[in-house]
Design goal:
The chain has 141 residues and is α+β, with helices and mostly antiparallel strands. The chain is built from four helices and three strands, in the order αββαααβ. The radius of gyration is 20 Å and the shape is elongated. Residues 1-10 and 125-141 have low confidence and may be disordered.
Length: 141
């Protein structure tokens, strides 16, 4: 692309009333956030390992979950979602626990869906690092 074309395309344009203006989506890494929600903790040999996910909604991930739920059913979609939000290590840790129940897994999946769809209270933009480790815990709505 030549410089003249590029400079023309970045100038503000006048848009006719009612016309669609395509949004500019600035890519950020969803998982790269200090604000996280712990959804489960595994205690093994007295050592607690929390498993968390970003506390920000993720509409794209929500759409992918809904598509999988339509095509494959809610249970397979929930399984896929848990691996997406916790990663393979977190998913495998949950799957390896002999004391985990189906009810517990369903509750964890429901909370993950609430977070990615934005059905939880928004997280403050700034966290005072001296008072918090960045973890966001507590009840989800």
């Amino acid at each position: 692309m030549s410089k003249s074309k590029k400079s023309r395309s970045t100038k503000a344009k006048t848009v006719a009333p009612g016309a669609y203006l395509a949004p500019l989506i600035d890519h950020t890494v969803w998982d790269n956030t200090p604000h996280r929600v712990t959804l489960f903790t595994i205690v093994k040999d007295g050592e607690a390992t929390p498993y968390s996910m970003p506390a920000r909604q993720h509409p794209g991930l929500a759409l992918a979950y809904l598509k999988r739920a339509r095509h494959d059913g809610e249970q397979l979609a929930a399984s896929w979602l848990l691996e997406e939000v916790f990663g393979e290590e977190g998913y495998d840790a949950l799957a390896a626990e002999p004391d985990v129940t189906l009810e517990l897994i369903n509750n964890i999946a429901r909370h993950a869906v609430k977070i990615i769809t934005g059905k939880v209270k928004p997280v403050p933009d700034a966290v005072d690092e001296t008072e918090s480790d960045g973890e966001v815990d507590g009840p989800l709505e």
